[in-house]
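Researcher: Here's the sequence for the chain we discussed earlier.
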Amino acid sequence: MHMKSAQLDIVLVNNETGEKSPAPLYMTYNHHHALMLGPHEDLMKLYNYTKDHDPLDPTSFPNQTKKHHMHRGCMMKRRSFEALLTAALPQGRRSQVAAFGGASGAEYRGTSTKLAGRYTYAVDSPDSFMVLMHFINTYGAPESQKLWECPCTSARKIDVKNGTIDGQKPIPFSCSQQLIDEKNTACSLATYEGGYRCCEHGVFLTEGPHPAGPLQQIEAKFTFEFYEPDAPEVKTARPTMQPSCCDATGGYLSNSSYFANLEYDIPQCSPGTPPEQCEHVISSVEYFDVPSSNSSDPNEEFELVHAWGHQHVGGNGLELYKDSTGELLCRSHPKYGTGEQAGDEKGFVVGIPPCVWGPPPLPAPPRFRRHDHVRTVARYNDTWSDGRDTDRCDKPRATRGTSSRSATCTRRAGLAVLTARGSGGVHIGPAC
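Model: Thanks. This is the structure I predict for it:
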């Protein structure tokens, strides 16, 4: 099957009438999700293999020690899906399963994933789909708090000496040299205040007690746009894949870790600094794509056809450059809500418009070799004001009650999500 787009929305179901309407982010927040499509038999094997475990964390399964839990469910990397498929399916079946999402959260609800021209997302035998959903209950939370930052409350047992959170080892901290030099508090367990490492399934993100709230029913609504098998467009469709880059918190050229840190804290702007100068900037340089196999050709060429940034509240934009020439490839700016309706919630990022390449009148897709270097630059406003487009260093949003924990910074993501078309014969497999 050739898909043109895949979108997720969260809908609220009226308990009395059954009527369904989009759920506002101040009721339920989509932290991230991952979607896998493929043959029913293979997805059932994946489901049974991952039952009662983090499906994107092979190290949390019975043949591994849970004390070395790696939290890859939040890792949002293509390799997380590949590791899962390698562990759960025979080699000949892995290419039948395609994966989408990963980094896709509430910030992308208003972001189009539709590919231009003949470019498509290819899925072999999509009999069924399997979903990993990380939703946060934000009902009744004070507007001054930001729940998606996942604060480490006093209920989290952080043992710096043993390197554990609640008795489990979180994924190693893998910050870029820039963040290490800046002594960023998100780069060490000793200074860690919140983020996805404190955001496991069933964890409360506020200080107790946690009184029961009203019963609410929500549903995840997926919308797929695709070509029927006999559609004439199928004959000329050009399937795409997702390269391994890009993360502003690390980089294969500046950090030897397999995964970068994915999150970092925004330090407060120095007192007396003019607001227009209060911008925190980080950057990293990575290979366009690190192949899944040593047999992959590092000089294989790709066309970049779709890209957008991943930022949270306070984001001023994310840029992608071809490092060898300094050419700006994509600049994305988060869209902020101004009202109360779902899709326009004040204080939330409600969409991040993508950069799209394709046939005229669109710009021609830039071309890359697999080992070409790309630079990601993430910009955040680091003032303390309450403007909707500022990066407020306040307390994260709570599910119930008021958190007594005073935060010094806010957790941020700096990712560029890319879709590329190979020059020929590209394996279309899992992509985060």
